Inverse folding.
C-alpha cells in the first residue's frame, strides 16, 4: 500500500520507528544482566564483605547494663564493624574515638553499629536517658578473636544467590525474546520499499552485539534497522 504522506514526513516516521525498535532491542538484551551489581548487606557491609559472630565482653558502669554476646561483626577489608545491642532501650548515643553514633533501630533495645578492633580493650561511652537527665557512662568492650565464627544464617541466605551467579548462562536467545511475546509477525513502516522482521532484526542485533564493541554494535544495529 503506497504512502500518502510527503516524502520528508515518511522518512522522518521511518527514523522515529527505527530508533524506537533499537531502544526495545537494547532493553531486551540488557535483561539478563539486570540486578548483578553489588549491594550493601543488612549490617552495612558490601557484597564482598565477610560476616561473623564473635563473643564480646562489657565492663564498667554500674554493672547493671549488659550487651548481647555473641554479636555480629563484619570484616570489610581491614576494618571491623560490630553490632552492639544493649539490654535497655534507653541508650540514645554511643561515642567511640570521639565520634558519636546514633542507634540503627527504631524500636526495642538500643542497637548500634560501631568500628572496633579485636583482642584489645576499646574505650567507649554511652548516653542513657533512663534518669531524669541524660547521663554519659564510660564502658570498655573487648572482642575475642578466638571465638569468631562465620555467620551461618547469612551463609545460608546467600547460598541461593551464589548458586544462581555461578550457574552457566544459557546460550539460547529464546528466553530473551520470549519476554517480548511469542508472536513474530512481520510489519511495515508505511513505505513500499521498507519491511522489517522482528525475528530477523533481533538476530542481526544479537550477532553484532556478540562480535564487536559497543560503538560498532550500535553502527551495525542501525544498519540492520535501516534495512
Amino acid at each position: 500500500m503506497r504512502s500518502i504522506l510527503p516524502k520528508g514526513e515518511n522518512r522522518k516516521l521511518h527514523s522515529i520507528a527505527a530508533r524506537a525498535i533499537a531502544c526495545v532491542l537494547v532493553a531486551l538484551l540488557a535483561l539478563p544482566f539486570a540486578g548483578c551489581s553489588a549491594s550493601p548487606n543488612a549490617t552495612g557491609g558490601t557484597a564482598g564483605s565477610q560476616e561473623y559472630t564473635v563473643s564480646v565482653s562489657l565492663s564498667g558502669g554500674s554493672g547493671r547494663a549488659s550487651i548481647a554476646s555473641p554479636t555480629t561483626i563484619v570484616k570489610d577489608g581491614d576494618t571491623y564493624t560490630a553490632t552492639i545491642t544493649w539490654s535497655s532501650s534507653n541508650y540514645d548515643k554511643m561515642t567511640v574515638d570521639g565520634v558519636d553514633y546514633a542507634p540503627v533501630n527504631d524500636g526495642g533495645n538500643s542497637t548500634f553499629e560501631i568500628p572496633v578492633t579485636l583482642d584489645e580493650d576499646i574505650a567507649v561511652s554511652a548516653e542513657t536517658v533512663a534518669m531524669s537527665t541524660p547521663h554519659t557512662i564510660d564502658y570498655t568492650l573487648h572482642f575475642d578473636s578466638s571465638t569468631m565464627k562465620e555467620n551461618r544464617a547469612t551463609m545460608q541466605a546467600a547460598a541461593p544467590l551464589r548458586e544462581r551467579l555461578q550457574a552457566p548462562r544459557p546460550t539460547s536467545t529464546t528466553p530473551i525474546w520470549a519476554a517480548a511475546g511469542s508472536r513474530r509477525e512481520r510489519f511495515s513502516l508505511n513505505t513500499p520499499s521498507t519491511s522489517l522482521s522482528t525475528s530477523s532484526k533481533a538476530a542481526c542485533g544479537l550477532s553484532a552485539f556478540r562480535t564487536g564493541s559497543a560503538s560498532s554494535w550500535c553502527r551495525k544495529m542501525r544498519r540492520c534497522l535501516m534495512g
